[in-house]
Design goal:
alpha/beta; Rossmann fold; 9-stranded mixed beta sheet; globular; disordered C terminus
Length: 469
């Protein structure tokens, strides 16, 4: 544990504890210092990441670093860990998509209640849960490690955390890797609306992929056919949730996972097919358990809320939300209302938002960024904007892969650049626009057997990167 001030404006006051894990370097002759990892969220735990990153980097490169994982303030093993309502995600919840104003206002009441519960339990802590606070904690970890500089690898929200650290402490950055990048111009209300449209595009791709393999899935030969089957299944689950656990919201949460990694498509397609064509619920329940089940513990969501609601201003008038989200729903129904209710507590958050931190990387000497053009959770423009703000950075783009989290997944073009930079600081040559374009992985194909399906899914998700909602 690293003890840090709750309030950096009062450093002699109350202290909290940040949980830290470390795997020490063994190749001391080629020692590269300490590298910190953050998997995203906000609310994701990083304690397991020294082991995860040993696999991703390879043993030889990992041995050059002290690999540092940590749980940001409020997360997991850090103290205190936020939990506002551990039953908030218990199934079956009211349908995300309101059929009338009364249902919409019932969800508003539910979201407001969550915000009030957080305020009642953690009133003083919520004033100090911004990304700036978490980034300042990172510098306390650096000091505790006895390092003059640190390197950093961040995914998804972790890119915003890393960019904030680099803005506040530019001379303390040795190497900086940001993978699947938050748009610093859109934090956070606008970023969530951007996600609605990006996930809609990925859902369209998913439906078209299923249609391509109609001989396997029998849901129609066009994406429109499959989309119709998908929403019919959703309506059926609203009327009769599968085994009393998977209703329309749980279904939405499960299939949202396909927007992060296309390697999940075969398992999700199989579950949808068996439910639609044969009324089998077991594959759907298994998919929900793997990708959608957040019941029983709201720690990640509590921290997500505390950080995002505090980082920047949100509309405090529900009429604004009502206008904006119904407008989004008209062209992006797949995620819009689920995303609205994942964030609506911010309209009623008991702590007023801090002044938004302007991200400025002009003083950072080097950085390496990765972005997929079809990333749904952190859309492509985020990588472009962050690249502009860090003039000494390089931007590596995967063209059309649709994956969220690119490094360490076996794409040679991506990984060779990533590992060279972490090994000795080598960066690609600077080019106009993106500096390097990498071809994506091929789309998956339906596995030959159920056993292969489960093994393939497990292999892809043993190190899954939690992302933005």
């Amino acid at each position: 544990m690293v003890e840090v001030p709750l309030d950096y404006g009062n450093p002699r006051g109350q202290k909290i504890k940040i949980a830290v894990s470390r795997k020490k370097a063994t190749d001391t002759a080629n020692y590269q210092g300490a590298v910190l990892f953050n998997p995203g969220g906000p609310g994701g735990s990083g304690l397991a990441y020294p082991a995860v990153m040993t696999t991703r980097l390879g043993a030889a490169l990992a041995a050059k670093y002290d690999l540092i994982g940590f749980d940001p303030r409020g997360v997991g093993s850090s103290e205190p860990a936020l939990r506002c309502d551990v039953h908030f995600f218990d199934p079956v919840r009211p349908d995300y998509v309101p059929s009338n104003l009364a249902e919409e206002l019932a969800w508003v009441k539910r979201s407001k209640g969550y915000a009030e519960a957080c305020g009642k339990t953690y009133g003083s802590l919520l004033d100090h849960m911004t990304t700036v606070d978490a980034a300042t904690d990172m510098d306390q970890i650096r000091k505790a490690l006895g390092q003059s500089q640190i390197s950093y690898v961040g995914y998804s929200y972790g890119t915003y955390l890393g960019a904030t650290y680099a803005t506040l402490f530019p001379t303390k950055v040795r190497r900086l890797v940001l993978d699947s990048i938050v748009n610093p111009e859109r934090v956070w209300y606008d970023a969530n609306i951007d996600q609605n449209h990006a996930f809609e595009a990925r859902a369209t791709d998913f439906f078209a992929w299923i249609a391509k393999y109609d001989a396997t899935y029998h849901l129609g030969t066009t994406g429109a056919d499959v989309e119709k089957a998908y929403y019919a299944a959703r309506a059926k689950l609203k009327a009769a949730p599968a085994e009393g656990r998977v209703g329309p919201d749980e279904f939405d949460d499960t299939y949202l996972a396909g927007g992060y990694l296309k390697s999940r498509w075969p398992l999700l397609a199989d579950a949808l097919s068996k439910y639609v064509t044969a009324s089998e619920t077991a594959p759907l329940l298994a998919a929900y358990a793997t990708y959608g089940d957040s019941s029983g513990d709201d720690n990640s969501f509590a921290v997500y809320s505390a950080v995002e609601c505090s980082d920047a201003k949100w509309p405090r008038n529900w009429a604004t939300w009502h206008r904006d989200w119904w407008q989004s729903y008209r062209t992006a129904p797949f995620l819009t209302w689920g995303n609205a209710w994942f964030n609506a507590q911010c309209a009623y958050w008991p702590v007023r938002a801090a002044r938004e931190q302007r991200i400025d990387g002009r003083q950072v000497k080097n950085a390496l960024f990765f972005q997929d053009t079809k990333d749904a959770a952190t859309p492509y423009q985020g990588g472009v904007e962050m690249h502009k703000r860090f003039p000494n950075s390089r931007l590596v783009v995967m063209d059309g892969g649709g994956n969220h989290g690119l490094t360490g997944r076996g794409n040679a073009c991506i990984d060779d650049i990533w590992k060279a930079y972490l090994s000795d600081g080598t960066l690609p040559a600077s080019m106009p626009g993106p500096d390097v374009h990498c071809a994506p992985f091929a789309d998956p194909v339906p596995p030959a057997s159920a056993t292969t399906l489960m093994k393939s899914s497990a292999a892809q998700d043993d190190d899954w990167v939690p992302g933005e909602r």
